[in-house]
Specification:
Elements lengths: L2 H23 L10 H21 L5 H23 L1
Helix pairs in contact: 1-3, 2-3
Length: 85
């Protein structure tokens, strides 16, 4: 794999670990005071980042695509936990 995709994989692992630590320390149970419009805008931003990852995966081999997809899923998990929990 190229360095860029190893970096994507490393960032995804860090995001997942941060989500797990945040879940067990009660970080996500604090009230978030986001209005409905802000939640929609955050979701649109998250899906635009995921679309950017999908476009970025063109020309990647299988493992590079899996690495970028893992980063996308980890990012979406973090967004959902921060905004909707």
């Amino acid at each position: 794999m190229r360095t860029k995709y190893w970096t994507d994989f490393g960032i995804a692992v860090v995001v997942v670990i941060a989500c797990i630590v945040g879940w067990f320390t009660g970080y996500f149970q604090r009230s978030n005071d986001y209005s409905e419009i802000e939640k929609m805008l955050i979701l649109i931003l998250a899906f635009s980042v995921l679309f950017g990852l999908r476009v970025d995966m063109k020309g990647a081999n299988r493992w590079e695509a899996v690495s970028a997809a893992f980063l996308g899923v980890a990012f979406l998990l973090a967004v959902v936990l921060l905004v909707f929990v």
